[in-house]
Amino acid sequence: IKALHQYDCLRANKSSSAWGLEVRVPFLDKDFINVAMDIDPEWKM
């Protein structure tokens, strides 16, 4: 997760830019990820 922005987000940005789209990645906030990772796996879908 620490290096996700360097690879997947960069790739998504290049791919979307090639088609003239602007993509946002709202779920990379560290606090959001920490909360999501602390949820009991049985509670997740």
Automatic annotation (TrEMBL):
- What is the protein name stated in its UniProt record? Asparagine synthetase domain-containing protein
Its GO CC terms are: cytosol
Coiled-coil region:
none
Q: Which organism is it from?
A: Nymphaea colorata
Enumerate the PANTHER family for this protein: ASPARAGINE SYNTHETASE, ASPARAGINE SYNTHETASE [GLUTAMINE-HYDROLYZING] 1
Q: Which UniProt keywords apply?
A: ATP-binding, Nucleotide-binding
Name the domain of life this protein comes from.
Eukaryota
Asparagine synthetase domain: from which residue to which, for each copy?
Answer: 2-45
Q: Give GO terms for biological process.
A: asparagine biosynthetic process
Fetch the Gene3D superfamilies from UniProt. HUPs
